[in-house]
């Protein structure tokens, strides 16, 4: 080293100056010294080896010289013995929190309506499993009718400060009764349609066993068949008078719907203009 050939007082002075330097400056100076020593060694080797060919010398000059010491030495990469061996991963990299440690092959919960394992929807089985709903709708309707009857009696004999509240209760019960009646009527209508379809399917099955070809009902034919079945059931329960009343009610409803969608006539427009002083709005045709 250079410090070994210097006098002691100079060496002590240099050591005192070096102690005041930072660690980074000392590290950079150490690197430069190591590089200088490496260059001197390479020059000595080149002087002693004159027997080498010029091609070998040119290849050595092209290759970059690596220092013997490095601040961040690279560790050799560990190669696997075969492709099925486990791969080594560095522990310095943080591992993600959301990861699959053990793969589970259990069936994930899904909506049974869209899973093929549950099978197809069967209206007959559904009706059998939920037949208690029809009885519950009838019980609810009877209970609501009794409550409505009792609430109307209370409104008649109620004082003035309670009349508004009890009238509101009556209107709420009336709406609930109408809703319950629609549920009961719907259950009755669906039962009639199911019975008619099951009877038709049974007859068609018997005809096929006797040699008749396959036949499938169209939507329009099915609609007419359902209407006929409903009116037949109505005639069995209430007679022809009930059927006539239901038909008149249906026709009245259709007439009112057509009347609302019809534009006003010219005479009616002039009357409205003369009475009100302004043109009345006409309803647009759909």
Automatic annotation (TrEMBL):
Comp. bias intervals (Acidic residues): 38-53
Main location: nucleus
Any one GO CC term of the record: 90S preribosome
Subcellular location: Nucleus, Nucleolus
Region (Disordered): 37-107, 196-215, 236-286
GO biological process, one term: maturation of SSU-rRNA from tricistronic rRNA transcript (SSU-rRNA, 5.8S rRNA, LSU-rRNA)
Amino acid composition bias (Basic and acidic residues), ranges on this chain: 58-73, 196-211
Keyword Coiled coil: yes
Sequence ranges of Basic residues compositional bias: 74-84, 250-262
Keywords linked to the UniProt accession: Coiled coil, Nucleus, Ribonucleoprotein, Ribosome biogenesis, rRNA processing
Record-stated family: Belongs to the RRP36 family.
Role noted for this protein: Component of the 90S pre-ribosome involved in the maturation of rRNAs. Required for early cleavages of the pre-RNAs in the 40S ribosomal subunit maturation pathway.
Subunit structure: Associates with 90S and pre-40S pre-ribosomal particles.
Protein name, per record: rRNA biogenesis protein RRP36
Organism: Cylindrobasidium torrendii FP15055 ss-10
């Amino acid at each position: 080293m250079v410090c070994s050939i210097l006098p002691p007082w100079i060496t002590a002075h240099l050591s005192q100056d070096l102690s005041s330097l930072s660690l980074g400056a000392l590290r950079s100076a150490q690197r430069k010294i190591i590089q200088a020593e490496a260059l001197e060694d390479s020059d000595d080797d080149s002087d002693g080896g004159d027997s080498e060919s010029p091609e070998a010398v040119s290849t050595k000059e092209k290759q970059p010289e690596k220092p013997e010491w490095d601040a961040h030495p690279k560790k050799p990469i560990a190669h696997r013995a075969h492709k099925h061996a486990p791969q080594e991963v560095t522990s310095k990299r943080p591992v993600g929190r959301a990861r699959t440690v053990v793969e589970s092959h259990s069936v994930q919960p899904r909506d049974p309506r869209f899973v093929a394992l549950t099978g197809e929807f069967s209206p007959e089985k559904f009706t059998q499993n939920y037949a208690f709903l029809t009885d519950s709708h009838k019980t609810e309707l009877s209970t609501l009718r009794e409550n409505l009857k009792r609430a109307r009696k209370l409104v008649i004999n109620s004082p003035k400060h309670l009349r508004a509240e009890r009238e509101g209760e009556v209107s709420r019960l009336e709406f609930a009764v109408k809703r319950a009646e629609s549920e009961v009527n719907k259950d009755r209508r669906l039962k009639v349609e199911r019975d008619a379809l099951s009877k038709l399917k049974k007859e068609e099955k018997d005809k096929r066993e006797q040699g008749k070809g396959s036949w499938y009902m169209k939507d329009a034919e099915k609609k007419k068949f359902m209407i006929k079945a409903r009116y037949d059931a109505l005639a069995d329960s209430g007679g022809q008078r009930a059927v006539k009343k239901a038909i008149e009610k249906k026709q009245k409803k259709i007439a009112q719907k057509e009347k609302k969608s019809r534009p006003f006539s010219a005479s009616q427009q002039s009357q409205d203009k003369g009475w009100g002083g302004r043109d009345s709005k006409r309803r647009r045709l759909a």
